Give the backbone structure.
Amino acid sequence: MTVTSEQSVEQAEEIPSQRVFRVEVMRAVRLSTSFIRVTFTGDDLRYFADNGYDQRIKVVLPHAEGGFHHFPENGRDWYQRWRALPSERKNQFRTYTVRAVRQDQAQVDVDFVLHGDSGPASRWVARAQPGAPAILVGPNAAYGAVHGGLEWRPPAEATSVLLAGDETTVPAITNIIETLPAGVRARVLLEVPAADDALPIAAGPDVEISWLARGTAAHGELLVPAVRQAALSVAVAGSGADKTLNDVDVDTDILWEVPDPQNGTFYAWLAGEAGVVKTLRRYLVQELGVDRRAVAFMGYWRTGRSEPN
């Protein structure tokens, strides 16, 4: 039987792009002062798509009373059904980046940033023990089209890239630079809380990585000047560059601008604390003259503001 392209589209529409994976903690390994790697396991993870790069997923946390009893099962409308639940029955969830997928072993690694008891995810992961149940909402390998949650979109002809962010971006940036094609020159700047947070990365010879240990400094205090300096040598300004920027109030709105450039030799991916990203956005586009269509700007989080579910 011949399957037409129309039939393939219909089949893809019937299969949700995201799937609810009921898993448990296999192990939790402390990597450094600020990072802990949790390996999740569960038979369904054989169907967890291995997209790499900056693939975002949801980690659903157990409810204090009902565990995961009320969390919706699989289906494209899981989020709508979750929103319809009474507030006292809703599980909290947070967004993270997949660090590794091993479909043949039904395992997924997620690197968490530890920041005390200030957030529900940090509290949970600091106490996570083997066998603890959890839920991941992630890409469904059975889905026949492009999954969401991927923002790394350099043009095919890119030969120079700039990646910068804080500790929340380390898993994404690590995944990206470990898969860069040979010959692509990359300048990478990562601001982290402590010196031992400089995790090992299998980078190629054309990748230059700078780890900036923040210590007691404010977020972005080291990253902003480092990006300003690095951009002078790797960024490409153009006479026809689009320098228009909408003013985003990062205290009330989400700063998230991800272009899909079709050409150009330069591309930048900048993420982390929204106020810092906004500062870098203004510098690169309006001061340095980089085309805003060549840069992805993502406010992963905002100081003093919890992630909305």
Summary: The helical segments are 5-14, 78-83, 120-127, 170-177, 223-234, 274-287. The domain at 160-301 is CATH 3.40.50.80 (Rossmann fold).
